[in-house]
Design a protein that fits this description.
Elements: H1 2-25, H2 33-50, E1 69-72, H3 79-86, E2 91-96, H4 105-111, E3 115-117, H5 122-139, E4 142-145, H6 163-171, E5 175-178
Parallel strand pairs: 1-4, 1-5, 2-3, 2-4
């Protein structure tokens, strides 16, 4: 019963934060600063609601002024709570286009400068990865990519798609792994 109440409270908190975030991002659309501010504001709220403790190791290896590709495994929808704990500036993520259909969150996600990808067509995937390269090199942003492509639902690490790695080579930026593990 407690877990159900926590998920309800988490849903309400994310909806409220996304509504405020969407309104704010209308005045400065497509800026990754919205992702950072949401992480700073909503990260601690989500951690408290869910009663989660984090152990972030080796965070010092991230060079704050150098763009990179963060490659993160994707176990559950809770990965967004984990990503929010890192509070990364000038960082956007790559997400499936269906995210746009999530009420409130989808609009905020798009207005925050994140890159949406159509996974069905290979040509659309290639165009999206070229856009990622452009975002890295021209805007000096970092990108969070979950190369499994879908949630593994706690069944171990899924097969990685190659786009994140090809893009890192093309953009000449380092890959920083982020491992989410439930202990």
């Amino acid at each position: 019963m407690l877990i159900i109440l926590r998920y309800i409270a988490l849903g309400i908190s994310i909806a409220a934060c996304m509504l405020i975030g969407t309104l704010v991002s209308l005045f400065r659309p497509f800026s990754p600063i919205h992702m950072y501010y949401m992480a700073v504001f909503w990260g601690p709220i989500s951690r408290t609601i869910m009663g989660i403790k984090f152990n972030i190791k080796n965070f010092h290896i991230i060079k704050k002024n150098q763009p990179c590709i963060f490659v993160m495994n994707h176990q559950t929808n809770m990965d967004i709570v984990v990503a929010a704990q890192m509070k990364l500036k000038n960082t956007v993520s790559l997400g499936k286009q269906e995210i746009l259909y999530f009420p409130i969150f989808g609009i905020w996600y798009w207005l925050s400068g994140n890159i949406l990808i159509k996974r069905e067509k290979k040509s659309a995937v290639i165009r999206s990865m070229l856009r990622v390269n452009n975002v890295i090199n021209k805007l000096n942003y970092s990108i969070i990519i979950m190369p499994e492509g879908t949630r593994s639902k706690g069944k171990g690490l899924g097969e990685f798609k190659s786009g994140a790695f090809r893009t890192a080579v093309m953009a000449q930026v380092p890959i920083i792994p982020i491992v989410v593990s439930k202990w």
